[in-house]
Amino acid sequence: MIHIKNLVLNINIETPTSILGKTSEQQSDEYRKRIQVEDDMKANIISRMIYRQRLADWARSRFGDDVANTILGGGY
User: Organism's domain of life (predicted)?
Assistant: First the structure.
């Protein structure tokens, strides 16, 4: 059996500098803003994809597959 006397544990938990000195309300507000920006970016990407698909469909009906594939950036 091993007996350990006066054991000292140094646990270093690093706090990101972005949250140092901020209240939990400020942290949660920043988190909500960051999530909103990410959601807006995703919605923008989806709307651009839909626009390109519609444009490619229109171009295919007018000019053929080559033009539509060019709009879509390669294979359809």
Answer: Bacteria
Distance CA 36, CA 11 (A): 35
Q: Is residue 50 part of a domain?
A: yes
| 16 belongs to a structural domain | no
Please give the residue that has the higher pLDDT: either 55 or 1.
Answer: 55
What is the per-residue DSSP string for 13-31?
Answer: -PPPTTTTT--HHHHHHHH
Give how far Cα 21 sits from Cα of 18, 29, 53, Å: 9, 14, 47
Task: State which residues form the domain around 54.
Answer: 24-72
Name the residue among 31, 49, 19 with its Cα closest to residue 57. 49
Per-residue pLDDT tens digits for 17-76: 666 677 888 888 988 998 999 889 988 888 988 898 999 999 999 999 988 888 888 654
